[in-house]
C-alpha cells in the first residue's frame, strides 16, 4: 500500500493567516485540516511586533493540530505578501563540445542550481523559478529536453525574487515558531498558481489579487509570469472609508461590507441596514445603497490604477500575435468576495472577468475541500502546495537544516 504524503501550507497575510493540511495518496488528494486566524504584528508586509506575529502563527498551528488530533509532522510551505517581489530572467548554458549528450534530470538540476546561485550573488533570494525556454544547439526550441541529445543546451529561467533582508526577516522569525523544515514562497505567485488554468497561463492572463494592504498584479504568458506590480491601495482602504463615513469600528465595517455591501450600487434600493457604532452598543442605521456607494468609489480607484498594468500586458501580448489578453482578468484574494465586483471589473477593464479560487482552476479535485476550495482568500494556501509538488528538481531556497535536527527528524519518521 502506498504511503500518504502530507503538505502543510501557510499563507501569511496582513489581515488573516490561512492554514491548510493536504494529504496525497497515489493520485488522490484530501484536505485534512484548514483554518484562518487574525494576523497580528504585521504592517505593510513587515514584521512590526515579533511576539504578536509568533502568537498568531502558533494559534493557527494549534487549530490545525486540533483538527488533525495529532501534531503536524510534515514539511511546510509558507507564503507571505510583500511589495518587494521582483521578476528576473536568467540564462544558463551548458556546452558539451562536439559530443552530443542525452539531457538528463541531473543536468537540468545542476543548471537550475546554477541559476539560483547566480541570483543570490546579486543579493536576491529566489522564491520561485520557472523554465521559460529550452534551446538546443542554438537552433531548436523545445518544451521538454529530457532524453533529447544535444551538444549544447541553454535554458532561460524566469524567477520571482525578494531582497535577502526581507527573506531573512520572515525566515528567522518563522524558524523559531515552525519546528519543521519549510520553504518560503511569494503569496502573489502562489495565489496565481492556485487559481489559474493551464490554457490561461499559456495564452495570457492577468491576476488581480485584492489583498488587505495593497493589490498585487501578476500576468502570465507561455506558462510563466511575464510581469508583476502592485497598487498601493487594498481592502484596508475600503474598510477605512466605511468606518470613517459611518462612524463605526473596523470589525463592524468589515462585517457590513461582507453581509450588505456591493461593488455596484446604481440599481440598489434604499433598504435599511443596522450596525453598531464605535462604542459597540449604539445601534445606527444606513442604507445598502449608501454603503455600496462608499465601497464602489474605492474599488473603482483600485481597478482604474490596475488598468495601467493591464494595458501594458495587453500591448506585450498583442506583439506576440494574440488579440487582447485571451484569459482576461482573474480576481482573487479576500476582496474578490465582495458581491458584484466582477461587474465593476468588467466595466473598467473592458475584458472578460472571473473569480479566481482553487475550485475554478484545473488542478486535481480535493476531497473534503469544498468550503475552502471556493474561497478566493485560500488561493495561495492551495498554490503553495502545487508550487513545490510539481517541481521535482527545484532546489529548496532555504538555509540548510541543522544536521542533528535532520537526523532526529529522520529517526522519528522511521519509527512511525
Automatic annotation (TrEMBL):
Lipid bilayer topology: Peripheral membrane protein
GO cellular component: cell division site; cytoplasmic side of plasma membrane
Localization per record: Cell inner membrane
First-listed, main subcellular location of the protein, grouped into a coarse class: membrane
GO biological process: FtsZ-dependent cytokinesis
Keywords carried by this UniProt record: Cell cycle, Cell division, Cell inner membrane, Cell membrane, Membrane
Domain SHS2, first and last residues per copy: 7-195
SUPFAM superfamilies: Actin-like ATPase domain
Pfam family, one: FtsA
SMART domains per the UniProt record, alphabetical: FtsA
Entry function: Cell division protein that is involved in the assembly of the Z ring. May serve as a membrane anchor for the Z ring.
Family: Belongs to the FtsA/MreB family.
Subunit structure: Self-interacts. Interacts with FtsZ.
Stated name of the protein: Cell division protein FtsA
Organism the protein comes from: Thermotoga petrophila (strain ATCC BAA-488 / DSM 13995 / JCM 10881 / RKU-1)
Name of the gene: ftsA
Amino acid at each position: 500500500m502506498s504511503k500518504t504524503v502530507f503538505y502543510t501550507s501557510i499563507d501569511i497575510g496582513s489581515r488573516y493567516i490561512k492554514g491548510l493540511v493536504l494529504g496525497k495518496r497515489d493520485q488522490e488528494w484530501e484536505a485534512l485540516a484548514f483554518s484562518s486566524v487574525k494576523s497580528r504584528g504585521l504592517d505593510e508586509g513587515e514584521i512590526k511586533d515579533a511576539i504578536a506575529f509568533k502568537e498568531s502563527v502558533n494559534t493557527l498551528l494549534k487549530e490545525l493540530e486540533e483538527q488533525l488530533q495529532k501534531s503536524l509532522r510534515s514539511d511546510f510551505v509558507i507564503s507571505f505578501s510583500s511589495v518587494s517581489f521582483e521578476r528576473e530572467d536568467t540564462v544558463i548554458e551548458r556546452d558539451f563540445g562536439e559530443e552530443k549528450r542525452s539531457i538528463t534530470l541531473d543536468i537540468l538540476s545542476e543548471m537550475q542550481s546554477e541559476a539560483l546561485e547566480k541570483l543570490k550573488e546579486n543579493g536576491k533570494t529566489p522564491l520561485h523559478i520557472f523554465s521559460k525556454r529550452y534551446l538546443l544547439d542554438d537552433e531548436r526550441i523545445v518544451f521538454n529536453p529530457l532524453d533529447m541529445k544535444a551538444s549544447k543546451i541553454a535554458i532561460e529561467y524566469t524567477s520571482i525574487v525578494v531582497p535577502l533582508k526581507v527573506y531573512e526577516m520572515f525566515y528567522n522569525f518563522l524558524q523559531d515558531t515552525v519546528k519543521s523544515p519549510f520553504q518560503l514562497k511569494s503569496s502573489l505567485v502562489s495565489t496565481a498558481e492556485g487559481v489559474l488554468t493551464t490554457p490561461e497561463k499559456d495564452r495570457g492572463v492577468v491576476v488581480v489579487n485584492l489583498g488587505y494592504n495593497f493589490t498585487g498584479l501578476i500576468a502570465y504568458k507561455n506558462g510563466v509570469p511575464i510581469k508583476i506590480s502592485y497598487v498601493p491601495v487594498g481592502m484596508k482602504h475600503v474598510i477605512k472609508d466605511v468606518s470613517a463615513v459611518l462612524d463605526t469600528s473596523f470589525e463592524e465595517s468589515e462585517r457590513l461590507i461582507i453581509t450588505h455591501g456591493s461593488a455596484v450600487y446604481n440599481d440598489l434600493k434604499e433598504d435599511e441596514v443596522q450596525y453598531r457604532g464605535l462604542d459597540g452598543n449604539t445601534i445606527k442605521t444606513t442604507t445598502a445603497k449608501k454603503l455600496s456607494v462608499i465601497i464602489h468609489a474605492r474599488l473603482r480607484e483600485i481597478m482604474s490604477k490596475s488598468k495601467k498594468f493591464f494595458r501594458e500586458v495587453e500591448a506585450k501580448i498583442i506583439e506576440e500575435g494574440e488579440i487582447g489578453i485571451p484569459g482576461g482578468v482573474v480576481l482573487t484574494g479576500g476582496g474578490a468576495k465582495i458581491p458584484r465586483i466582477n461587474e465593476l471589473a468588467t466595466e473598467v477593464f473592458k475584458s472578460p472577468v472571473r473569480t479566481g479560487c482553487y475550485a475554478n482552476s484545473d488542478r486535481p479535485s480535493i476531497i473534503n475541500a469544498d468550503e475552502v476550495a471556493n474561497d478566493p482568500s485560500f488561493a495561495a494556501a492551495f498554490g503553495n502546495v502545487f508550487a513545490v509538488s510539481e517541481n521535482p528538481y527545484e532546489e529548496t531556497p532555504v538555509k540548510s537544516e541543522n544536521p542533528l535536527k535532520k537526523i532526529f527528524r529522520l529517526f522519528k519518521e522511521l519509527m512511525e
